[in-house]
Amino acid sequence: MTAAFSPMEDPETAPFFEAARRGELRIQACTNCARLRFPPRPMCPWCHSLDSEWQRQSGRGRIWSFAVPHPPLLPPFAEEAPYVVAVIELDEDPLIRLVGNIVREVDGSIGVVPSSELSIGAGVTAVFGKSIEGFPVPQWVMSAN
Ligand SMILES: [Zn+2]
Q: What is the pTM of this model?
């Protein structure tokens, strides 16, 4: 993949990527009202506090939605088509949703798991494989349950 598709790292998102490089899924949490928020931002959208911390999550979630993108696709992804892009809701807070690919194993191809194997609500677990130009992004494997 090329730099054009790298995630943005800035002071707000850096803790997410620092944790991901250690294989940890951390989500920003308000230290005033304790609610999680994602994507990261300076102010809590519920209580307007500016205080936050990065809490480690279990990495478990469920498929909230998924789709198979159709051409035209960005060149680095065209070679892997067809593949699934899924929206995952975290077990700790179903309102926290991350977009990612479903893979069979860490660093697996994104085009291996067909949409016919997936269903809304199916359990998944985050895995962190090789990074894309230094930015590890979570991918998801199907859970046993
Ligand atoms: Zn708050």
A: 0.88
